[in-house]
Amino acid sequence: MKISANEIRIGNVLEHNNKLWIVTKTQHVQPGKGGAYIQAEMKELRGGSKLNERFRSAESVEKVFLEEKPFQYLYKDGDYLHFMDQANYEQIQLPEDLVGDASAFLTDGMIVTVCLYENEPISVTLPQTVVLEIVESEPVVKGQTAASSYKPAVLSNGVKIMVPQHIEAGTKVVVDTSNSSYVERAK
């Protein structure tokens, strides 16, 4: 669907130079001399490369609509992850690098969102947070609890994160899957 450059928003997926790009930043620039333009920072969906592009206000761009479908994570087989479509129970296998570093947080039965473009999977999104157990952490040192300091800890999936001083091994914590950071103690 063609849209005016003025309608470009963060999160839009555009087809530009025969590639799919997601808009990460936009800025409307109106110089003193010449016509106004939109400065857009975009990231390629398939390759991950970045691009800064200027679009004249009168220019039109191709906006792409992605289909988002819930899939259930089944298992890992070598470098491939297997998922099952929640609507028709068909199974697909995707390369692990499509999920990226967040693949460490995949657990059996987890529901993820797969974005499809013309029935081709182009990205996998995990839930924002997951609950995991701390299996290893340094002991609390007296006197360090006054300041909000953090210590390293290892999660049950092997990922290392920084946690507050009061968190000990055996404690379940909520972890942000997008940046592998501690959120809070699980209830």
Please tag this protein with its features.
187 residues, 16 strands, OB fold (Dihydrolipoamide Acetyltransferase, E2P), mainly beta, SH3 type barrels, six-stranded antiparallel beta sheet, 3 domains, five-stranded antiparallel beta sheet
Would you tell me the structural class of the helices and strands?
A: mainly beta
Calculate the mean pLDDT score and round it.
Answer: 88
> What's the count of strands?
16
State the shape.
flat
- How many helices does DSSP assign? 0
How are strands sequenced across the largest beta sheet? Answer: 1-6-2-3-4-5
* Number of domain modules: 3
| Poorly predicted runs of 5 or more residues | none
End-to-end distance, in Å?
A: 46 Å
CATH topology title of the largest domain? SH3 type barrels
> Mind summarizing the main beta sheet?
6 strands, antiparallel
Oligomer designation: single chain
Report the CATH architecture of the largest domain. Answer: Roll
Order of helices and strands: EEEEEEEEEEEEEEEE
How much is the radius of gyration in Å? 21 Å
Tell me roughly what share of residues is in helical segments.
Answer: under 10%
Layout of helices and strands, plus pairs?
Elements: E1 2-4, E2 13-16, E3 19-29, E4 37-44, E5 50-56, E6 60-64, E7 67-77, E8 80-85, E9 91-95, E10 111-117, E11 120-125, E12 129-137, E13 150-155, E14 160-164, E15 172-176, E16 181-185
Antiparallel strand pairs: 1-6, 2-3, 2-6, 3-4, 4-5, 7-8, 7-10, 8-9, 10-11, 12-13, 12-15, 13-14, 15-16
